[in-house]
Amino acid sequence: MDSWQGDPELPDPDRNSRIRTETPDASSKGAASSLADELLETMKEKRSLGRHMLHLLLKRDTQSLLMGYGVGEPYYALGFLRQRCQMLKHLDLSYQSHLTPKIFVDTLKCLPRLQILNLQHTPSGDQSLHNSHIITKHSSVRSHSEETVQVMEVIGEYCPHIRDLNMTSTAISDRGVWKLCESSTGEPRSQDLVRFKVTETRVTAEGIAFLLLQCPALVDVDFPDMIQVRRTPTRLGNFRL
Q1: What does the pLDDT read at residue 127?
Q2: Which of 32, 34, 125, 185 is deepest in the core (most CB within 10 A)?
Q3: What CATH homologous superfamily does 17-235 map to?
Q4: Residues contacting residue 165 through CB under 8 Å, at least 6 positions apart
């Protein structure tokens, strides 16, 4: 696998799969939140957290929720996020295979400060494609999953501070890349994006070339054929079909 990497100082969203909240506030409220964070992590190690415990521990100033690899009760957790956690900066839902694209869309619309998002191996698009592992690298931009495009469009529109996005093993296509970094009226989006992972997807070298042109802060792209990207003349009109 060929990967183009810079040296961004970002936390790795894959470093663990535990549920955790982080509130680095030095005030008494922040101290109380930190205590709740420690309690949440300790209890997660002992048992799966249900609705009642998530209700008690997910607060307005929660900044991180890591529910990767299918742990916890994501439906309840995301419901509480939408209601009260607009300060959230880091969300990991990797391998949560029972969630739907609509849930992602509804949740992401409520997270304006989100910086790190991991949707690896989730049904954020065409689940039949995902399950059969049929990944078409050079498919037409017309043959995309509208659900995935909608998820990417919501990230671009409602999460303007996104810095680290992992869409590995999803049905994202070139059209989804366009929606992530440019509005339908041509306004730039995702200008803070630094890291982007799209291995085992429908994104082509042309899509990555377009992304690099649109996102000047991008320094780390996990894509299987960066050599081809460097050889690809980007025809911007293709992404708007």
Answers
A1: 42
A2: 125
A3: Ribonuclease Inhibitor (3.80.10.10)
A4: 117, 119, 155, 180, 193, 195, 196, 197
